[in-house]
Amino acid sequence: xxxxxxxxAGSVVFCKNLVGDLLSFPEFKKDVHIALHDIDQDxxxxxxxxxxxxxxxxxAEPKITAHLTRREALxxxxxxxxxxxxxxxEPATVIDFEVPKKYGLRQTIADTLGVGGIMRAVRTxxxxxxxxxxxxxxxxxxxxxxxxxPMAMNCWGLNDGSNIKTVGLCHSVxxxxxxxxxxxxxxxxxxxxxxxxxxxxxxxxxxxxxxRDLYPDIRKTTADWDKWQWDHVRAKALDLLGYAVTESSxxxxxxxxxxxxxxxxxxxxxxxxxxxxxxxRCKDIIGSWTETRxxxxxxxxxxxxxxxxxxxxxxxxSMETGQPRVIYGNVPNNGLIDNLPAxxxxxxxxxxxxxxxxxxxxxxxxxxxxxxIRTNVNPQELTVQxxxxxxxxxxxxxxxxxxxxxxxxxxxxxxxxxxEMIEAHGDYIPKxxxx
Length: 435
Known about the structure:
By secondary structure, this protein is α/β, with parallel strands linked by helices. The chain has helices spanning about 10-25, 40-55, 70-75, 90-100, 115-140, 150-160, 170-185, 215-220, 230-240, 250, 265-270, 275-295, 310-320, 365-390, 390-400, 405-410, 410-425, 430-435; strands at about 1-5, 30-35, 65, 80, 145, 165-170, 190-200, 200-210, 210-215, 325-330, 345-355, 355-360. The longest helix has 25 residues, at about 115-140. It is globular. The termini are far apart.
């Protein structure tokens, strides 16, 4: 029996989708053990109830267990799916936004880069390494499928700090491919593409329909305000760089030094950059949680589960059955992209079958793309170094090298801001970085 452990199962809606995807395969209707883990008992219980209802609606009879103790969920697992958020919305996410705001530094999502993404990595990587230590003892051959941001830094920390097999998964590649296909009125299923880079800053190197390059058509659409509604930063990036980036405008705006400038509110307004967007989304989700929970417990949104395009279940199915598939995974750059640093986390196409994940060698990216990506890899590398070596100076350097932060603040302001954030986060920050 295949055992799949879900860590952070209290993310009930996302967990429901991932479990539903798995149970949609005929091979996993019965012969699978779903082990749910969360530290929040109420949410864990809700997730277990929803999983059982979902299984019944799909005609599946899996073994479903729920565990407040992580080691019980991991014991003997073949696959471990991670979706934890260390520190939650309060206090951690609020701190990530509110302290920088005091220094005049505004953010949109703050989960991938910027000082918010860096501090999230500092909180998260040590917890993921605790997971890895347990896995090394209880399921050393299991594959760790990570969905938690900041993707690149988390995977880099795991790959440098443990021996477990890790792949990072995100929906930004296929989600953006679907959007681009729609913008040029081509069926998504008929598009052929190759994409590569780092998570949230990968670029479509090829985008074709029946052998025809679609980029000339895509480039013509960037001036169409309606086709790129709420995505004008990404349209501008396509005009500037010549290639379409995978992540949305609200994300991409805070990975570069060009758009979010406090002395240029006109640019923010013109490009419709939503400041504090993640805070707004969190408040909406929290505000609607009771209603969402009741709907799921009353079987609404359960019976009509449609498989998502999330890669996790497809990886498990391909590795168990041998059916070959290509997914996009975040893996170490071991000779995959020549003009990005060795060992950094890159996002590339990967063949999956019974042999596991086999990443595709891309070669060189266009020079301007590699140059931009390296500005994001530099703070990622320093952040991982700070966590693994308890090196506070490296943490200062990481934030100093962040493109958006460096464009807005002086070094002295950055050091003061980081010190204040460390103090505010308290025990969520590793002890070695607090002293």
